[in-house]
Amino acid sequence: MRRIPLATGTPLLAALLLALPVLANAQQVQQADTGWQGKVHAPQYKETIFPPWQHGANNPALNKGLEFTVPEVNDLPDFHGDLDHPKLVIFVAGNYYFAMAPLVQAFEKEHPDFKGRVFYETLPPGILLKQMKAGGTITVGNMTWTVKPDVYAAGLKKIEAGIHDGVLTGKAISYVSNDLTIMVPKGNPAHITGLADLGKPGVTLSMPNPAWEGVARQIEASLKKAGGDALEQAVYDTKVKNGETTLTHIHHRQTPLYLMQGVAQAGVTWKSEAIFQEQAGHPISNVPIPADQNTTAIYAAAVVKGAAHPKAGLMWAEFLRSPTALKIFERYDFKPVSAHKPG
Description:
Layout: H1 11-34, E1 79-80, E2 88-92, H2 97-110, E3 118-121, H3 125-133, E4 137-140, E5 143-146, E6 151-155, H4 156-165, E7 168-178, E8 180-185, E9 205-207, H5 215-242, E10 245-247, H6 254-261, E11 267-270, H7 271-279, E12 284-288, E13 297-304, H8 310-319, H9 323-330, E14 335-336
Parallel strand pairs: 2-3, 2-6, 9-10
Antiparallel strand pairs: 1-3, 4-5, 6-13, 7-13, 7-14, 8-11, 8-12
Organism: Thiomonas arsenitoxydans (strain DSM 22701 / CIP 110005 / 3As)
GO molecular function, one term: molybdate ion binding
Keywords: Signal
């Protein structure tokens, strides 16, 4: 093909030169609009790795009507049951969302008049408190509803603070404790051996957000035990800024998702959550944290001030420390509170 030489002063070349910035800008806009840095591809995933993971077992409603759940699109894994005239509403920190189904089933067995009339939420404790301060009203996507809790369950310190602030009433009823672990993909491809490895450059992490997850405080304490302020700063400051630490937006439910999706190589969670993931058949494992570096949390519950069903709320709180409930908690390596002191 014959080439036509272009002088810098020709109208054609001038037009091309003028068009280059426009074309480049259009390309940048196109990339920005994709939301995926210009890399557009069809989703390729196994639906089973997305919550809800208990295949409907966590919904205590008797009449489920049309069942319509689409992973990543229409999915409300932290809201359980029927909002139509519940007799017991539980707000429980998401630390043991996986244990709630068998707990509610056992409670209903002991109290048949509650069957199908229990509604519960398993959001992070800080977010649940915000919902309570908003009068129980919450919006998820295009849906808004109002539900006020009868009982609130979270870490013992948060329950005691709620009683002090007048949000909760009565006494704090403690029942089980939990320890931390390092959750990793099955096979531990990043060869994580302990907390110190989380500070290494290049190791990508999924960590609970300190803004609304109480577990972040326990994790920060453990990081300092293992590597001082330098390790805590590396994980929760330096790596957050350079993108190697991804902070969760919901709660620890996101960490196993990030591990299975390859977004992260490790993340600190409660040991019970790693055990549940393994029991669910997900490719998840964990690296134990030594006792001298670990931090223990004690869980407690209390009745919410002004609750519509305070007697039912107290019944649930007392049930949580019953032999029946403790046996369920033991499946996920929770310990009765008498076996631990706060970390």
